[in-house]
Structure formats: C-alpha cells, structure tokens
Amino acid sequence: MNTWTTEVIPKLVHPYLRLLRETQNLQQESVPAITECVCLGSVHSLSVLVVRFDYLERISLSICACQSAAVQLVERGFFPCAPLQPSLAVDIRLLDFATRLFLKISPNNTAISNTLTEFLEARGLSYVDPLRRRFGNALQWFNSLQHAATQLVDSLITAHCDSLDTTDGGSSDTTEDVSEEGYKSPKRQRFHEEPPSLSRPSEYLRSRCPICFGGNSRISEGLDSIVCNDACFTQKHTKQHYRDPQRTHPNMVFIPEEDVEAWENFVAEVRPSRPMKDFEDRLKVPGDVLDDCEKSFTAADGTREKASTQFFDSTALMGLLCRHDHVLWLVNMTSPGERQHYAFSLIDMLFKHLPPMWTVGLLYDVACTLKRSSLKWGFLDQYIDHITFAISVFHAYGHGWACQCVYHPRKCKGFGLSDGEGCERFWHSISKLIAYLRVCGHHTRLYTLDSQIHQSDHESLQGFGKWIVRKWQNAEARRIEGNKDVVESQELPEFLRQQWEEQVASQTKPLPRQSQTAGKKAVEEAVRLQKVRDSLVKHISRFEDIICDVDADGVDYIDAEEHLPILRKQLETCQNKLSQSKRALGVNDHASFQHLTKSKYINYRMNARALKMRLRMRLRARKFERNRIERSARRQQYNERKIQDQTEDSVKRRDPGIQKLARSYNKHVSDMQELIRRRQAPWNAVAPLPIALKGLFNVDVDDNIWEDIGLNDDDDDEGPPPWLSSERVRKGIKGILLRDR
C-alpha cells in the first residue's frame, strides 16, 4: 500500500491527465508515444494480460528504471493490478464504468468480476485465475489516481485564484503546495481545522453548497443559513477484530473521532454540575411540555438503546445538511442511543467555519430539548444567540401543541417553507448501501459514503436550476393559498398577527397542577395578600395625615408626597390580586377565611380549577392538530400522507389522557356537590357543571368546558378570544402564517 501511495500514484497523475486530453476523455483509442530508454540500465520484458470490455489481450512491455510498467500501461489506456510487476491490467474505460456503476448501486467486486468472467467465457475466452481480487485492487487504486488528478487540477486553480486575490490586494485563507510530481495534498483549509476569524464562510463550506455559503444573499426574515440535523440507526457497522488499512477520501465530510470524543467528555464533565440559573426564563415553552416531548422521542433520550454495541462498533450516522440537502458534515456514532454531544459537535464545527455574526436556523427532531440542554448547561454559550431552533415538519406533530406554537418551522420567522427533512432524503438515497456498509471494513465504509456524497453533490449542482424553479412555483402557489385565507377572514393582517401572538402567549403558559394542599395554599396566599393590603392602607393613611397637617415638618411632607403615589399603585395591584384569590375561593370581602385552611371543599375546588384549565389546553391543542389532519385529507402526495398518519397516531395516543382528565374533573365536581348537600361547604358555594364525556372532542364555544360557574376563573370572564371562538379568525391566522413564510 505504501508503494502505491508514495511511488506509483504520484508518477501516474500527469500520464493519466495527458491520456484524458489526447483521447478526448477516453472517447478515442489511445496511441502511446514511442519513447527511448535514457537510463542506460538493464531492460527486461514483462507479459501482461489486459482485460477489456469484450475480449482479453496479452501485451509485452519493456521495463527499465525510467519506464515503469505502471506508467506504460496508463499511457496505453490500462491500469495495473500491482504497483511494480503486474500480471494483469484492466482497461481504464472498464474501470471508469465500474466506478460509475458502484455510485448507483451497492459496490460488489465479486459480482462484476464473475459477470465479466462469464461474459468472456461465453465468447470462448477462458480465464483460469480468479479475477475478483486483482480487479478489485486495480479499481481501488484507479480511484486513488482519479482523486489525485482532481486534487492537482484544484490546486492549480486555487493557486491562480490566490494570485489574483493577492494582486487585487486581497488575502486568502488557502495556500497550495504543488510538487514536481504534481501530487501533494493541497494545504486547503480542512474541515477539522479551526479557521481564523472569517469575513465570509470558509472555502470548505463554499465548496459544499455554493448557494448557501458562496454568495451574498440573506434570507428575508433574518437568518443567514438554514441547516437540518438528524441521525440514522439503519447505517450500522458490524464489529470486527481489526480495522482495514486506512483509506481516506480527499473530500472527506466526517468529523474526526477525537473531536467527537472531546465533546463527549466535555458533556459528561459538565452535566453532573449544577445547572445555570434562570435558564428557564429564556425558554418559551413550559417545562412539563418539554418533558412530554422528551418522553415521546427516543432521540431526546440518549439512554434508550437503538443499536447494540455488543455487535456493532458503529451504531449510526448523524448528519448536518444545508437546506439544499447537501451534506456539510457527518458523525460516526458509537453509542447505543442518540446522545446530544454528537449534535453539539456538528453545530460547533459549523460555527467554526462561519463569520462571527452569521445566524443559523437549526431544524432537528427534538430541537426543543436540545435548546433546553444548551441553556441549562451552557454547552453552546458562544453560539446560542446566533441559533434559531425549530423542529422538522414530519416530527413536529409528535410534540405538544405548545411546543409546536414556538418551534414549528411554519410558525417560526426565518424558515420559510424549509421542512428540515433533508436528512431523511439523504438517508433514503444511501439506503441501497446498508447491507454492504454493515460488513465492509471501517475505512472502506467511510470512503464509500464520501464517494456517494461527492457524486450526489455533483448531480445536485447540475440540477440546481430546476430545483429553484420547482421551489419557486411551489412557494408562489402556497402564497396564493395563504393570501386567499387572509382575504376570506375579512380581518387586517396586523390583527391576525396580533391574535396569533395572543394565542401563543395563552397556549404556552404553564398549566396549574393538582395538589393535596391546594386549598390550604390558596387560603394562605389570600391571607398574605390581605395582610399586605392592610399594611399598605396604614402607610397610605399615615402619609395622607402628614400631607393634611399644616404643622408637619418639611422633610416629612416631601417624603410623604414622594412615596404616596407609589404606595397607592401598590395597593391597587394588591387589591386586584386579593379580589381574584377570594373569587377563586368563593368567599366575600368581609368573610374571615382562616377557618377554610383545612376545608375539603376548597381543596376540591382548587384542584378542579387546575384540572379544567389543563383540560382546556389539551382540547385546544387537539382541535388545532385535528385541523391539520382535516386540511391534509385532500392532499394525495406521499409525504403529506405520511405526515397525516403521523399526526393521527400522535392525536390518538393523547386521547386517553384527555379523557382521564375529564373523568378526574367530574369526580371532583361530584365530591363538591356531595359536600354542598351535607352543608360542609361555604354558605355561598355553587358546584361547577360536570363535563359530558360523550362528544368531549367535538369542542364548541357553547360547551360547558368554557363555563366557570362555581370556579370563578377570571381568565375567561370576557368570553373566549377571537383566535379560539371564531373559525374565520383561525382560518385567517393559518393564512397569514403561510403567507409570511
């Protein structure tokens, strides 16, 4: 292997490029030039069997110190199976065909070798020795020659561009070193090196996606780029006793193992410590909703085993792709679950290759929990203000409605119509390699994936024009659809956006919980507020007396005049809170409620109030999710059907929990009615109305679920808001969100 890498391949680069030029990219037969020996050394003859497409040919070569067998064979259009004394060579056009074939199907040297042998035998051309090993060897090193030739051409182009930048007074972060042989890896800014402070994305990113990182465009709603992140646990690799010889693709996209291990150690070191203070204030979604998201997705729980490390040394792949489905980086996962340090390593690598002020939209299945971990433990402190998190469209409906209100890309500014499913499309494109990659060598696996990605990028670049046309037409159609809903709502866009903000604020409030001491706590809070009110009244009365006293000291007068407006405002606020607490308890202004501290009725009342509020939120969320199903029932696209099925499954999973809440609420109502009947409740107590389980999910504005008789919840004193009660406004909100995106 060392002979191939250091001696043979560097000497074959120029002959190979000359062959391509003279044969017009292998369209014509090669006519090697006759060169005389100048080394005056010993010459010996070598017989080589050549494998062509449709016949075998034996040729004789004269070998000396200045004319190696490999160089002579390449000049004739063949490639040797061995570096120094080959007994067999393969037509370069045949190797080029096999290379392109293996980019479309799973690589299989045995199959193509056996097929070629049978094809030749059918024409009376027998070949005794096995062809597989030598054909596979020739194919491997021919691919290395192709990469070396591409590197040489790239290095010359880059060196020329650098000279132009220098002439124009600019600077470049890339330099090249071209040897006499023409094969030295260019000193290009590699992905695992931290570049200096950049004024534009690094050369590596510009080469990965010129549309995202090569121009000066900026997404209209403020993001500089959009990326998606996901893992695939079908791309495993069976554990082997030893690793195959190292084979590295020149355009490798894998993050080095040592970088991933560094993040793993950092996360393990930080997590046992105390979390950062006040991190929950920066989260827009209640903690209990995020907890439900974490339970719903195995991606959010790295302890759940998806692949056994007993049988696999590589359990999965995790990728970071741009919005045009170009792979930016991949991580080779070795843990049984989808742990967060893999995502952190990908995000960290991305920002090292971006200018300091760039902002990124990140789409991930469990972006909500990833953001919470980042804020809680400070994992991405240096980047967190430059990241807008969102959940991918297909997985959004597995999250709670409150989470969807904040993290759904169709409801987030900056994401447009990006769906975050680029990773899923990439996993599908390489699904044909699952069987092969599971049993091949470790380095062969990485090399094969790099080759597939490079080929996919090449095909994608050629189709970018059609891609943009298709996306533009879809965006225009969706804009017209959204604008139609806005017009039919008969409301101004500003009003609809305001209603959406109110809906998000209402549906992301933390839900009240039941408690065995809920009544006692409510009474104690009311007692505390009454004491604060009485104290404020005394202070205000004292300051008013000072102001009315003509003989009062001047300093006291100024002090009273300064503090009196503040105290009056505090009194007004305290009085409002006290009134709300008393109405929730069901007592009047003059009643003494110390005796209610141990009241069963008050305890039932407060718990029923908490249950009803949670039930309302759940039913609201379900109504909006069901609306998605009903709207998509008319669509026939495969992806839409998948999303619809996913949504229906998520809704059905949550239905039993909603019914359980309703039954618990009715049980509390029954207990309250019984206490009233026994005269064990306050004298003015009125039992709330029970909720009918039949037709529970057919939510209507006139249902008992919105009535608070006996509970006195002031939140809904003015009736349901327009975003909830008006079908016309709800349709307009959907339309304005779609139109804005």
Automatic annotation (TrEMBL):
InterPro entries registered for this protein in UniProt: CxC1, KDZ
Signal peptide span: none
Domain CxC1-like cysteine cluster associated with KDZ transposases positions: 43-123
Which Pfam families does UniProt cross-reference here?
A: CxC1, KDZ
Region entry Disordered, spans? 165-201, 630-655
Name the chain's protein.
Answer: CxC1-like cysteine cluster associated with KDZ transposases domain-containing protein
Organism (species): Lentinula boryana
